[in-house]
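[audit] Reproducing an earlier prediction to check determinism. Same input, same settings, fresh worker. If the tokens differ from the archived copy the diff job will pick it up downstream; this log only records the rerun itself.
[audit] input (295 residues):
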Amino acid sequence: MQKIPSYLLGLLCAASVAACGSGTDSKNTADSTAAKDSTTTATGVNYRIGVQMWTFRVFPFADALDKVDSAGIKNIEAFWGQDLGAGMKGKFGGDMTDEEKTKVKDLLAKKGISIVAMGVIVPKDKAEWIKAFELAKYFGLSYITSEPIKSQWGMVDSLAGAYGIKVAIHDHPKPNVYWHPDSVLAAIQGHPNIGACADIGHWARNGLNPVDCLKKLEGHIYGAHLKDIVKFDDPKAADTVVTKGVIDLPPVFAELKRQNFTGMMSIEHESNWYHNLPDVIFTKQYFDEQTSKLK
């Protein structure tokens, strides 16, 4: 477990004396911190803050929703393979039963949370892509985050057009084929329904300036992943809490505003897995503070 930063102890103590004194890594230990600010969009920008559910991957989907709600966030990017929980035996994905999809939709409605996107997926064939688009249609998604097989670009673009749901190409670190914006631009050429999911942390891991990458992809960005890392130009660099790493985030927020980005920026915190709710809350508050300053 990553040690909880000192600036978050106050939040923890205010939420629960018991939580503040706990030092266990048990999976049964619940985060009791709740955010005071329940807004989903800062006043200075037109894009939304969300959570990539991979952040809470060690918990079932239903429990992860409770954490998202506690953080005052109302938009999520779901990931395939997360146990559903709440009495359901399946996992989030294309093989969910009708009963499970209905129950998940009810859980979302009760908390006023929307699934805006899902990913990162790499379907092996057209049949798997159709399953993905059908699920995306059911939940009213705006886009699917993916790293599609190159030979599928045309087929994926065609399906995306037919379903009215975009596909956003994600950039994992080297040696991933999409590690550089140029590879994403190549996929976009002639495919109007394919764009980018801008993971600024992975760009920094790849030794790339996130703002330069955003500029290259201007007009094609459907979504983004918000994170910070401990070391530049290291594909294996660990995540850290925003403001504690090497990424200069205010210029990133400003560039997205300049581009009139209207999608979702998903918090994806891949650290402190069992107790990272305070980190997510801090990230959301930092996002609100910084973007509210933008003119």
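[audit] rerun output stored. Observation attached for the diff report: The mean pLDDT is 89.
[audit] end
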